[in-house]
Amino acid sequence: MTIRIVTDSTSDLLPEWIEQYKITVIPAFVQFGNESFADDGIALPREEFYRRLIEQDETATTSAMPIGLCEEMMQKALQEADHVIAITLSSELSGIHNVMKLAAQNLALDRITVYDSRTLTMALGWIVLAAAQAADAGESLDNIKALIEDLIERAVIYAGFDTLEYVRRGGRVSALAATVGGLLQIKPLFQVVNGRVEIIGRVRTMSRMYSELEKYAQDVAPFDQIAYIHTHAPERAEKLRDNLASLNPHGKTHIVEATTAIGAQIGPGAFGFAAIRSKR
């Protein structure tokens, strides 16, 4: 049986993985006013996105892909496979999961399985990559499903925002809370729990943010996979990676810039790690 894996652009997969394992990545969309761009790194390059976000003080919003585009790209995957497995970012954070479920129902529900990863960025990416590698190796559909379900339970994300300003623009905190947070230089730390982003701490200095993220990493280690994620702040992700060198499995790490669909929600300067915990 030939199995193909489908995901959305918030998975932050490296291009070489997408090509090697024939992964279908359906883009979310980012809007600046009346302009809409596919979150594919081409329609709106990262540098241009952050330039507009920072310099022009524009509010960016995000949306799920159109159902027609989702059906078109899923149909192409079905033409090359006996079964398609779609793995999406958390349904608590976006309508993407529901769009993919609807597309599956419209196309061939018996040949498409849709999973809610309950996470995002490279925590989702690690799940997708492992599923695609298993499919490439000829694993059975049942084995790949079991693998995905196991990895969903072991995926973790911890990160910190540099500012509440962009969260305020998106309407997720009040203007007052963002203003007070800015005056006090409050930098929130968060993790993803059961598909939801939960604030787990607040710090005032960048050095304290590093210390707290390192503590959380120590608490949930060891890892099978880990990536250091950021929004337009590679030097911060690199420093965190270097500080956590002893925890990097087999010495392998990846620095990954989150897609514009995520950058639109939290703004530049955020950083952290996305990992798959080892079985205990």
List keywords for this structure.
single chain, 280 residues, alpha/beta, Hypothetical Protein Tm841, Chain: A,domain 3, 2 domains, six-stranded mixed sheet, four-stranded parallel sheet, 25% strand
- Give me the number of helical elements: 11
Q: Strand order within the widest sheet?
A: 10-9-8-13-11-12
- CATH class placement of the largest domain: Alpha Beta
How many distinct folded domains?
2
Morphology call: globular
Number of strands: 13
Indicate the radius of gyration in whole angstroms. Answer: 18 Å
**CATH topology descriptor of the largest domain:** Rossmann fold
Helix content: 40-55%
User: Termini distance?
Assistant: 32 Å
Low-confidence stretches: 170-184
Given the helix and strand composition, which structural class is it? alpha/beta
Largest sheet: 6 strands, mixed
CATH architecture of the largest domain: 3-Layer(aba) Sandwich
Strand portion, in percent? 25-35%
Query: Average pLDDT value?
Result: 90
Encode the helix/strand succession as letters: EHEEEHEHEHEHHEHHEEHEHEHE
